[in-house]
User: Which sequence fits this backbone?
């Protein structure tokens, strides 16, 4: 299965996909896209000989209107957002309906939406005094973090003393959950039954 990955920063989830035993021989990352001209995730892509593109309107970027054509040229079957901070244009969301997934570092539908990314999410979770957090992989629709939930995994945070500690625990879970969902997608094991998304 041909996938492309969208990133904005560190790229640890990109690395988890590349290193996943579950995905060996099953998927190929055809390209990595970012809204940044440079980011650590691009270095990971380059080390793995994966083409990189910056999306935007600055010099050296590809425009959002050219993005669809590039996705088609790679025969993209799944778009994975792994820490991408911008909204994917509605035209691409409708073209790739149920073929764009995002990983969110909290248990949606709580602690999601505009502005709730990175450490902001974990701070909100910490201050709420919730005793569990976790990771969510969901389909992407036109708004932040509202698409149907594909898979979630919880982590106990009852004993944490900082938002950073939550981030560390959730990240461990993310690195397993995202490759798991991609693998299920590649096997055609994610379906809607009785208006509910089911993973088999
Ligand atoms: C992850 O916590 C992901 O859930 C969120 O952004 C972070 C990206 O981390 N959407 P990385 O770039 O994959 O290391």
Assistant:
């Amino acid at each position: 299965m041909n996938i492309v990955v969208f990133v904005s920063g560190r790229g640890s989830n990109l690395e988890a996909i590349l290193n996943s035993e579950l995905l060996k021989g099953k998927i190929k990352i055809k390209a990595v896209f970012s809204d940044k001209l440079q980011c650590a995730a691009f270095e990971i892509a380059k080390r793995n000989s994966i083409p990189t593109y910056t999306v935007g309107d600055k010099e050296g970027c590809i425009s959002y209107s050219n993005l669809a054509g590039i996705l088609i040229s790679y025969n993209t079957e799944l778009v994975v957002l792994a820490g991408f901070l911008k909204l994917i244009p509605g035209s691409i969301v409708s073209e790739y309906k149920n073929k764009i997934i995002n990983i969110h570092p909290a248990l949606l539908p709580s602690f999601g939406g505009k502005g709730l990314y990175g450490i902001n999410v974990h701070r909100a979770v910490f201050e709420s005094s919730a005793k569990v957090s976790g990771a969510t992989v969901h389909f992407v629709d036109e708004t932040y973090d509202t698409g149907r939930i594909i898979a979630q995994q919880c982590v106990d945070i009852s004993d944490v003393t900082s938002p950073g500690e939550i981030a560390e625990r959730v990240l461990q879970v993310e690195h397993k959950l995202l490759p798991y969902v991609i693998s299920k997608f590649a096997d055609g094991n994610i379906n809607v039954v009785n208006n509910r998304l089911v993973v088999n």
About this structure: Residues 2-189 form a domain with the Rossmann fold fold (CATH 3.40.50.170).
